[in-house]
């Protein structure tokens, strides 16, 4: 069951990721995501309905790419 929404804008495939998928993708816990957002070190969420938020896949991918690699 895929909970993400897909929006096609030209050639850009922007997906809106729900919290469970963000945690699975980043390896962060739910609380770590919100703490990092509060400190400004993690992308902010976007409201998709009255009681639901999601994160732009492009911003999550950029955040992952910006993390230092372990050597």
Largest sheet: 4 strands, antiparallel
Strand order of the largest sheet: 1-2-4-3
Poorly predicted tracts of residues = none
Mean pLDDT: 87
**Taking Cα atoms only, what radius of gyration do you get, to the nearest Å?**
13 Å
Task: Let me know the number of strands.
Answer: 4
Computed structural class: alpha+beta
Strand content: 25-35%
Shape: globular
User: Number of DSSP helices?
Assistant: 3
Distance between the termini: 35 Å
Succession of helices and strands: EEHHEEH
Helix proportion: 25-40%
Characterise the protein shown here.
This protein is an alpha+beta fold and 71 residues long. The protein contains three helices and four strands. The protein has helices at 19-26, 30-39, 57-66; strands at residues 5-9, 12-17, 46-49, 52-56. β3 and β4 form a beta hairpin. The longest helix has 10 residues, at 30-39. The radius of gyration is 13 Å and the shape is globular. The mean pLDDT is 87.
């Amino acid at each position: 069951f895929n909970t993400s929404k897909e929006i096609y804008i030209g050639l850009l495939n922007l997906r809106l990721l729900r919290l469970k998928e963000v945690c699975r993708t980043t390896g962060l816990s739910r609380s770590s995501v919100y703490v990092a957002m509060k400190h400004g070190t993690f992308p902010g969420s976007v409201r998709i309905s009255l009681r639901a938020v999601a994160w732009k896949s492009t911003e999550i991918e950029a955040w992952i790419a910006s993390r230092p690699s372990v050597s």
